[in-house]
Each structure stands twice: as structure tokens, then as C-alpha cells.
């Protein structure tokens, strides 16, 4: 099995690193100081589940140096999806699987439009991880688990092969028969957790202990679920209760990648998260006032960060 990881940040660095550590042939596509550090010093992952290091890493910024692989893991920011898909073409052979491990619910369709829908598999990553410094990934929270599935539903051998590789690598991974519902379920949680922690600039522990902020969190989940159901996605009726309970179990100091990007002056995934909720709410005529409010509060920061690049 040969795997290319497009985007060696928190998600790609952690899961790609675990696969490489287990002996899988993994190549990372990265750039800048992070790429240089990985080439010179390998990759270090500082994890709440236990640190590990790769002394030697196959890393490049040129897909042609890697050539065709069996699986391409797309772990870039949502606004880089189409660019990554175009650049990934040298990595493809007739049976290559392109697996999205990104935030949002529209990345798979963007990938399919460029590499072909028959190649694309959906994935949901449950982890809080970032680049701490070049060559170093910090996994600070979350179960570090994946759920993967065919966009058309059901089970497949190609997904099962990847699941088996993940199990051998030592992280939790499951094949789901309804990846769309899985993606929307995660999307509902991420929009609420990311939106609230970024908007109030406080960790989830302080969000969940404030009655008003806790209700805001719940209502964002409710809105995303309503939009999903309007689009024909089957979500459980008690999903809001489950997501609030999951938030209660997170480390009290946990933030979100959206908050991390906001305070570090980086482009935010605002459009792929709350912006997408607002737009789809308008299309389906579902009211999303809480999501609209968080989107309005955070948009000036996103515009400011992008203008400063």
C-alpha cells in the first residue's frame, strides 16, 4: 500500500505519521519551513495519547516526485480543496482512492468534479491537532479517530483495506455505511464548537458553563441539523443532546482550529463552516439566526486575516 498525504498539518501529520510509523509507505506533500524541517529532522508528534517520532520522512512539495499511489489523503483547508485536487493528478492510477479528511460537507463534491466521482471517498476526522512549530504536530485533544465511507453508501473492499491499515497503525477507525450522515453530524458539532470558541475567544469549558453560551451552542447544532434534514440527510433526533454531552466531556481548555487561525492571523475556514450553513439555510428556507450571528461576528476577522497575507 502506498499513501500520499496532501497537507501535513494537524490531521494529515497525525494520521499520516501513525500510518508511516506502522510501516506503511507514506509520502507527505507540504511546503515552506514545515517541509524543510520534516526533510531535515523528520516528524515529531506530541500527543495526549503518547508522543511518537519519525526520524526519516518522505516529504516533498512536488507530486511528480511521488508518482501514483493507492490512497491520497486530502487534509488541506477547505478553501484549498480544488487546488489540491488539481495538483494531485500525478498521484493517480486507475484504482487510486481520494479520501477527504477535511472539515465541511462540500469538499467531496469539489474533489469529484476534478478527479472523478468514482475515486472519492468521504472521511470524518475527530481530533484537535495543529502544527506547533515546523516539523512538530501537537495533538491536544479529541479521540484521534476516523470514520470513512463510500459516498453512495454501503461498504466496500477499498475502504476496508484502509480501515485495516489504520487499525494496524494504532488509531480508532471505522467504515460507515452512511458517510453523508456522519459528515453532517460532525459538521453540526464543528460549527457549534468552532463558532462559539472563536466568537467569545474562550475555551469550550467556559462556553459550556455559561447558560447563554451553552444554549447558543445547542441552537447552532439544531440549525445545522434542520438544514441537513431539509436536504434529505437522516440524522438522529437526539443529536443535539449527544453533541452537548460530547462537549461536556472535552478538556475544559480546548479551543478549535477556527479560533487558532483567528488569533494567529491565518485564513479561517469560516466560509466552509458557518458560511455554508447560512447559504444552505437560505436555499432550503431553513432559519439559521444563531449561525448567521456567529458568521457576522467572525467574518471581519477572516477578511482582516486574509487581507494581511
From TrEMBL:
The keyword NADP applies. Signal peptide: none annotated. It comes from the Bacteria. One of its GO terms (molecular function) is 2-dehydropantoate 2-reductase activity. Pathway: Cofactor biosynthesis; (R)-pantothenate biosynthesis; (R)-pantoate from 3-methyl-2-oxobutanoate: step 2/2. Pfam families: ApbA, ApbA_C. SUPFAM superfamilies: 6-phosphogluconate dehydrogenase C-terminal domain-like, NAD(P)-binding Rossmann-fold domains. Residues 3-152 form the Ketopantoate reductase N-terminal domain. Residues 178-299 form the Ketopantoate reductase C-terminal domain. Its EC number is 1.1.1.169. PANTHER family: 2-DEHYDROPANTOATE 2-REDUCTASE, PROBABLE 2-DEHYDROPANTOATE 2-REDUCTASE. Catalyzes the NADPH-dependent reduction of ketopantoate into pantoic acid. Belongs to the ketopantoate reductase family. This is 2-dehydropantoate 2-reductase. It comes from Tenggerimyces flavus.
Amino acid at each position: 500500500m502506498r499513501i500520499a498525504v496532501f497537507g501535513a498539518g494537524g490531521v494529515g501529520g497525525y494520521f499520516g505519521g501513525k500510518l508511516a510509523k506502522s510501516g506503511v509507505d507514506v509520502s507527505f506533500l507540504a511546503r515552506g519551513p514545515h517541509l524543510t524541517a520534516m526533510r531535515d529532522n523528520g516528524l515529531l508528534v506530541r500527543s495526549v495519547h503518547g508522543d511518537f517520532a519519525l526520524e526519516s520522512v518522505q516529504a516533498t512539495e512536488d507530486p511528480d516526485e511521488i508518482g501514483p499511489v493507492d490512497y491520497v489523503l486530502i487534509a488541506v483547508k477547505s478553501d484549498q480543496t480544488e487546488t489540491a485536487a488539481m495538483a494531485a493528478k500525478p498521484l493517480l492510477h486507475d484504482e487510486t482512492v481520494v479520501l477527504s479528511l477535511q472539515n465541511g460537507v462540500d469538499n467531496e463534491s469539489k474533489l469529484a468534479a476534478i478527479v472523478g466521482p468514482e475515486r472519492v471517498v468521504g472521511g470524518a476526522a475527530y481530533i484537535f491537532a495543529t502544527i506547533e512549530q515546523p516539523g512538530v504536530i501537537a495533538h491536544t485533544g479529541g479521540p484521534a479517530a476516523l470514520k470513512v465511507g463510500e459516498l453512495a453508501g454501503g461498504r466496500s473492499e477499498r475502504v476496508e483495506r484502509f480501515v485495516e491499515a489504520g487499525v494496524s497503525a494504532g488509531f480508532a477507525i471505522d467504515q460507515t455505511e452512511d458517510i453523508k450522515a456522519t459528515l453532517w453530524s460532525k459538521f453540526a458539532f464543528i460549527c457549534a464548537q468552532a463558532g462559539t470558541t472563536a466568537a467569545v475567544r474562550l475555551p469550550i469549558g467556559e462556553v459550556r458553563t455559561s447558560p447563554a453560551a451553552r444554549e447558543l451552542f445547542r441552537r447552532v447544532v439544531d440549525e445545522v441539523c434542520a438544514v441537513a434534514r431539509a436536504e434529505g440527510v437522516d440524522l438522529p433526533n437526539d443529536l443535539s443532546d449527544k453533541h452537548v454531552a460530547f462537549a461536556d466531556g472535552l478538556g475544559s481548555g480546548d479551543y478549535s482550529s477556527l479560533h487558532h487561525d483567528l488569533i494567529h492571523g491565518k485564513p479561517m475556514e469560516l466560509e466552509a463552516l458557518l458560511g455554508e450553513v447560512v447559504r444552505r439555510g437560505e436555499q432550503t428556507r431553513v432559519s439559521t439566526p444563531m449561525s448567521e450571528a456567529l458568521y457576522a461576528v467572525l467574518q471581519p476577522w477572516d477578511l482582516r486575516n486574509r487581507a494581511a497575507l
